[in-house]
Amino acid sequence: MSIRIEQKSAEKVVGLRVIGPYAQSIPPGCQRLMAWQQQHGVPLGKWLVLYWDDPAEVDPKKLRADVTFTVADDFVLPEGSEALSIQELPAGEYAIHRVRITDGDFETAWSNFYQKVLPASGYLPIDGVCYEHYLNDSDADGYYDLDIYQTVKKC
Length: 155
Prior knowledge:
By secondary structure, this protein is α+β, with helices and mostly antiparallel strands. The protein has 3 helices and 8 strands.
């Protein structure tokens, strides 16, 4: 259970908002975004899912996430992209934790991160963004390799 702390530069992302239980809302959101990306020929950057709500505190029907990928700083949405938005992930200090999900159990990975790994690191989460950076093609590999990112400050 390792963690690394990095100073990250700001990154621009394009994506779409999904609402509802994460396991039910994120996969179709990914499919919609990938279809849009292919239709418009937008170069695919890093694949990220941004999380805005804590499932322990928010009704599952109201959970918000943004399915996104990074784009160039000068990227502009093409016409016909009204369902999508551009955001900037802020620069700052981030805790990064690499995990492999083999059984679809994202909940355990996130729980371990916030309850064990991050507290043992000497850093605290702060208001800001938390997200997953997907590192492999899970359809081809049968598992997910990803990095969990959280904005942090030293204790």
